[in-house]
Write a structure and sequence with these properties.
By secondary structure, the protein is of the alpha/beta class. The protein contains twelve helices and eleven strands. The strands form three sheets. A seven-stranded mixed β-sheet has the order 1-9-8-5-4-2-3, sandwiched between helices. Strands 6-7 form a two-stranded antiparallel sheet. β2, α5 and β3 form a beta-alpha-beta unit. α4 packs across α8. The longest helix is centred in the C-terminal third of the chain and has 32 residues. Bound molecules: pyridoxal-5'-phosphate.
Amino acid sequence: MSRERTQAVPAFIDLAAQREHLGDGVERAISTVLKHGQFILGPEVQELELQLASFCGARHCISCANGTDALLLTLMAEGIGKGDAVFVPAFTFVATVEAAVLSGATPVFVDVRPDSFNLDVASLEEAIGEARKRGLKPRCVIAVDLYGQPADYKAIGEIAAAHGLLVVADAAQSFGASLDDKKVGTLASYTATSFYPSKPLGCYGDGGAIFTDDDTKAMRLHALRNHGKGPGRPDTEYLGLNSRLDSIQAAILLEKLRLFPGEIAARQATADRYNAGLASVAKVPQLMAGATSVWAQYTIVTGRRDALAKACHEAGVPTAIHYASALNCLPPYREMPAGPTGLRQSEWLTERVISLPMHPYLSVEAQDFIIATVRQALTSAKPGVAHAAE
Ligand SMILES: Cc1ncc(COP(=O)(O)O)c(C=O)c1O
């Protein structure tokens, strides 16, 4: 497949380069589905669920239509709804809070740490107090593994245990990563992930999955994703959703899963090169001790973001902002509660984060060009090193 390359770095996430590496396996896999005709929950879906569970070491994998549903289905399986508080970070993709609201519960925002970008446990404790003050029942914390690095599940688990909270991992960005040698998928009671095309493991449409070790809840999730009717059951037992994975998407994911371990290693090598080249001019991402990341995003923090974005654009280097607004600043969520100290780190980060191209097929030459462009932009502008919000 030949592609026109019109700018220095052709894509922020280069899915076309990955297609070239996949060869004709994807076409053959799709053609098999076209022949057998079981387009929804067909044999590829079951095979994918088995392979994903074995990849991460979870007892069960229940695939579904997307990562947002994966979160919502989890809350539904636990009967979480009206009067319940679900704690979510304010600095994440909007789907995390959306799922909490759609369940009928009240989201309570928690601030994040400026070093890992993940949930701050001191802020979580405050938010739990605030929920109680408002007469809400603290039920669940959704910890997000932002940019591909797991949250601090040990610290979160201790607080959750003390307050009787369920821990759900929003691993839409982190499937494939690990913490203390345990893979994402096994770090919380439930793990929800997304196979959106640009995710580290993405399909060619929407897709998602839930991982759990709980046999009973796994059976319920199988039913909930299919209008409340479990496999082999004669009737609808629960209020459910239509959230099934297409066999074609599962077939594509099975092909991509073969490349995934090598792709994770390539992402890490790129992150290492970026870190070495950029640490002296910007705040580069930090991993917690014992954590690995799949680098869904490589995001730096700088007080000169606008100048950097402009210079990158002019040099032909695509960049992106994840995320330009804290969730508590977005219209549907402005009235949602948070702890008394507020969400200062989240709001501070929204003005300073900028993500650089990151994918497994980014050449060393492209990486070096990106590093040189960023260095040049940040050393020629006036100083403004990014410290965390006071
Ligand atoms: C942190 C986070 N949570 C949830 C989702 C939702 O996934 P999906 O787009 O598959 O619904 C995403 C996807 O972008 C995400 O980044």
